[in-house]
Amino acid sequence: MSELHEKSLSEVRGLLASRAVSAEETVRACLARIEATEPKVRALLHVAGESALAEAKALDAAGPDQDKPLWGVPLVIKDALTTKGLPTTAGSRILENFVPFYDATAVARLKQAGAVVLAKANLDEFAMGSSTENSAYFPTRNPWDLERVPGGSSGGSAATVAAGQTYGALGTDTGGSIRLPASFCGIVGLKPTYGRVSRYGLIAYGSSLDQIGPMTRTVEDAARLLQVMAGHDQRDSTCADLPVPDYLAALERTDLKGLTIGLPEEYWGAGVDAEVAESCKAAVTLAESLGARTVPVSLKLSEYAVAVYYVIATAEASSNLARFDGVRYGHRDKSAAELIDMFTRSRTQGFGDEVQRRIILGTYVLSAGYYDAYYRKAAQVRALLRKDFDAAFEKCDVIAGPVCPTTAFRVGQMSSDPLQMYLMDIFTISTNLAGLPGLSLPCGLGRDSGMPVGLQLMAPAFAEDRLLGLARVLERALPPLPRPAGLA
Amino acid sequence: MKISREEVARVARLARLELSEDKLELFAGQVGDILAYIDKLNELDTAGVVPMYGPHATSTLQRPDEVRKEHTREQVLSNAPESDGAFFVVPRIVSAGS
Questions:
Q1: What's the domain range around B9?
Q2: Which of chain B's ends, N or C, has fewer CB atoms near its CB within 10 Å?
Q3: From the centroid of its chain, how far is CA A431?
Q4: Which CATH class for the A4-262+394-483 domain?
Q5: Residue B24's domain is classified under what CATH number?
Q6: Residue of A101, A344, A434 lying closest to B16 (CB–CB)
Q7: Domain limits, chain A
Q8: Quick check: B59 contacting A, CB < 8 Å?
Q9: Which residues make Cβ contacts (< 8 Å) with residue A482, sequence separation at least 6?
Q10: pTM (predicted TM-score)
Q11: Interface confidence: ipTM more than 0.90
Q12: CA-to-CA distance for A131 and A128, rounded, in angstroms?
């Protein structure tokens, strides 16, 4: 028998709807688990125990509601998303005392569906990083091995779900920030298509890349969260006005007959650790045994994706982060007598090294004389990358490869070499550049490290239903992961 | 492509950041390494390729431009480092010397 905090979101939702457990009991089970594990994992920047219990009691008093598909379910939100009345820091000192007066649309929709916000999750400062070591507050540890990173930038979201502190979390993904930590922590992470989920209330990093998505212990759980969040929002003009499919119906498929999976040679060749390749290959072989056909495809520009990304993402970041000037919110240096000095000192004191580095790079590639050589060039290669995907999807329904060349690395291992850290995202960045959906599915533990391995599934724009259907069939056929070893 | 300390300092000024000598040195090396890596884009011939600045196939969605009051002045000022209850207050804008 698993304890209440170990249930999946879908299971606990059923228990809540039938009143087998109360919303208050469920929140208390999560809070108890947080108390027991948080000193080791450090996934959370703010635990909203009091407000979560108050909301749960109010829900219990009103009783379950069929129109609220997440009635009573406690969730954790990455601290890059605004939450009304709860501190929102983006992992930065510059927003240390910021308390938003509105909810991000994704958060508002979860609340309208009956979910309870339990806590805010740690992240790399402004979502810039692949390990959560760039948080201005503290690094988060991987529940499978406390000496290793959880991945990033949504490392707190991945770790809190893997540690059983909550039933699901929201992450954000600009270059792999949902899929990489999901892979490192052995959970499901879905980056939806650009435009599928409203980004109103998301503290912007790279506006042509950022997406919000679910991080959960099962594929069905991810489908349930996406179902609630997806769809047009008048407050985000980049949020597509397209119908939202029935993602739960997509989970009903029982085999993979008629499905063609493309295997890009660039994702399956040199540079991938043997244990990662082995686990991912076994999952693909399993898919074949369930009826899928595999074909080789080519994403020949993959090796340029990281270079394109670090021009475009930093350019957009340098513009987006210009708003942090000490005037309307955030840290202000009080010693400056004049406005420009106040801007400069507030920003210099408030931003950490990685953020400053990316602002410098982004400002440089946009500056007079360099714009065409860097920004325009990168946008042209981006167009070619997208064409590669379009051509590949003429031959297959879904593309599969590893999420990352390695399993979770050790704390401190990469922190002195930014470029080496950037290369962790080599397999995830392309889908952000192309605007396509990608899902990380746990497919086993690495033979050498004993750490989780994630298989990445990618699909054409707005085909999240296809990803979820395939992932559910594989999840059912794969042996379930044991409990995370670092918390045993 | 290498980048000099002076160039990093110039870009930092544009971005309203003030870097210590140590950090200028560190960033010049690191940003130079990253730019050298980015230079691999020049291996590709992109003549005539239309740049892709965002993933949207369709144009930006529009809605009627109607005034809606969703937040109070008090809320909007609630996170201000300094306000007088009606406005954001900032230090003097025009330098005493100019």
A1: 5-43
A2: C
A3: 13
A4: alpha beta
A5: 1.10.20
A6: A344
A7: 4-262+394-483
A8: no
A9: none
A10: 0.97
A11: yes
A12: 9
